[in-house]
Amino acid sequence: MQENHADKPLQPGDRAPNVVLDAITRNGKIAIDDFRGQKPVLVGLFRGLHCPFCRRQIAAMAELTDALQEKGIDSLTVVNTPIERARLYFRYHPLPNLLAASDPERVSHRAFGLPNIEFTESENEWPHKVSMSTMSSMQIDMPGELPEPMNVMAAMEYLDKADGYEFTEDDTRMIATGHGQLVGEFLLDRDGVVRWCFTEVEEGGRNLFGGPAPRDVMSAAANMAV
Known SUPFAM superfamilies for this protein (predicted)? Predict the structure, then answer.
């Protein structure tokens, strides 16, 4: 199958491409076309499970599964973590009703137009290039998770320690090629057309390492259900 590649994140009104991935939480494959003509679906495209921010966003998305299903909407979580590593993680950290797929090559991210940032010495060209000084000056504020606002690296280290997350060779490989991968969530109608989205690309990067408010997701779902 020829790979799709969008130049910028898909927006409401855009038709989502088909992507076929290995299923994590069940056997076989999962494809976007599995939902087309059947049900609306919320697709979450995340970095690998090595990312503590993504682990939290995945859990937040999973918490909405039942509420979304009540409105006739399915959910699909995609992580750029190799299949066996991902299965091992979710075996020990199960999330009820989670439907997840593995995408270590980030095919789905490119298809939905989510760029992989290049980190530079001094050049900023959002969302494709960001200087290390810009990243190091960013403060992450997560009340209840972090004791105080921290820079990105310190926050990641703190959260990984809090989670007891043990890195493997698979994690290291994914970080080496995709540590700048931006993420997002896309709500598709039953025809596979984007009706709502939230991405780290938006707001000039102010969404980095954060996810959509649950009320915003459910508001979009309610509008879809009307």
Answer: Thioredoxin-like
Q: Which residue range(s) make up the domain with 192?
A: 20-115+168-225
pTM tops 0.70: yes
DSSP 205: G
Say how many domains are in the chain: 1
The answer to the question of residue 41 being in a domain is yes
pLDDT tens-digit series, residues 165-221: 999 999 999 999 988 999 999 999 999 999 999 999 998 888 999 999 999 999 999
SS3 for 32-90 is: HHHCCCCCCEEEEEECCCCCHHHHHHHHHHHHCHHHHHHCCCEEEEEECCCHHHHHHHH
Residue 135 inside a domain? The answer is no
The candidate with the shortest Cα–Cα distance to 222, out of 70, 56, 65, is: 70
Name the token pair of 137.
């000056």
Report how far apart, in Å, the C-alpha atoms of 109 and of each of 9, 71, 79, 214 are: 9, 26, 10, 22
| Cβ atoms of 57 and 81 closer than 8 Å | no
How many angstroms separate the first and last alpha carbons of the chain?
Answer: 35
How do strand 20-23 and strand 29-31 relate by DSSP bridges?
antiparallel
Beta pairing, strands 194-199 & 100-102: unpaired
